[in-house]
Amino acid sequence: MIRVRRGQSTKEKLLEASCKVFAEKGYRDATHAEICRHAGANIAAINYYFQSKEALYRAAFEHLLQKADMLYPLDGGLSATAAPESRLKAFIHAHLSRMFDPDRLGYLHRIRMAEMFAPTGLLDELLHRQLARDRAHILVLLREILGPSVAQRDLEWCEMSIIGQCFMTAPSPDGKGPRAIFGIESAEIGRLTEHILLFSLAGVEAIRRKRGLHPESA
User: Fold this and answer.
1) In this structure, are residues 216 and 156 in contact, taking their beta carbons and an 8 Å threshold?
2) For the chain, how far is it from start to end, CA to CA, in angstroms?
3) Residue 128 CA to its chain's centroid (Å)
């Protein structure tokens, strides 16, 4: 159900309504009429405010990405001078928290999942931009921990290992994914964050010792 806040502009109502309709119906089956009905807007409003259904789709997805950043920033509110291990923990916690907030971010996950299995190509630029930003964030942290002389391949594989653990908790369309198999609940986010952090740091430390690397702070 769309929660219309008092004082919302027509454009804001269209954004909120389109997130719901695109998530539930998919881009191809979503119609101007249904989006405008949920928004309580005239059917011409989409073309007036967004020019096209394609532009509204991009705007809706970007709106959801911004909401995720606002709710769960990747830096967890920590200073850039905080220990890289603490910042890595905040990064992991933010990713897990986003996975376990269906009430506020469920539409984001459903649209992203739809783009994986039936891509429209309309969100490619936004998805690539978000991925590049997230990757840059964690690679900076790992380079600080491993040291400036770490090989790029080692750096990327450490990144892959950490992100892979987080993505195991992603919601699946049929509800039968790893989250269900392992019985992971939202109440366990704190413990799971700690586990992934400790497991990952142990692996990173093994790589560091094997390669004879020295952290930036050393």
Assistant:
1) no
2) 53
3) 12
Residue 34 near residue 22 (C-beta atoms within 8 A): no
Phi-psi region of 184 (alpha: psi -120 to 50; beta: other; left: phi over 0): beta
- 93 is written with which tokens? 């916690």
DSSP 160-211: HHHHHHHHTTS--TTS-SHHHHHT--GGGHHHHHHHHHHHHHHHHHHHHHHH
Q: Look up residue 134 and give its two tokens.
A: 């997230």
Q: What is the C-alpha to C-alpha distance for residues 200 and 23, in angstroms, rounded to an integer?
A: 33
What pLDDT, on the 0 to 100 scale, is given for residue 45? 94
44-48 average pLDDT score: 94
CB atoms within 10 A of CB 211: 14
pLDDT at 3: 52
- Distance separating alpha carbons of residues 89 and 145, to the nearest angstrom: 13
Query: How far, in Å, CA of 132 to CA of 9, rounded?
Result: 32
**pLDDT score of 31 more than 70:** yes
Token couple for 58: 């991009």
- Contact between residue 104 and residue 71 where contact means Cβ atoms under 8 Å apart: yes
Mean pLDDT for the stretch of residues 144-172: 94
Structural domains in the chain plus CATH codes = 1-59 (1.10.10.60), 72-211 (1.10.357)
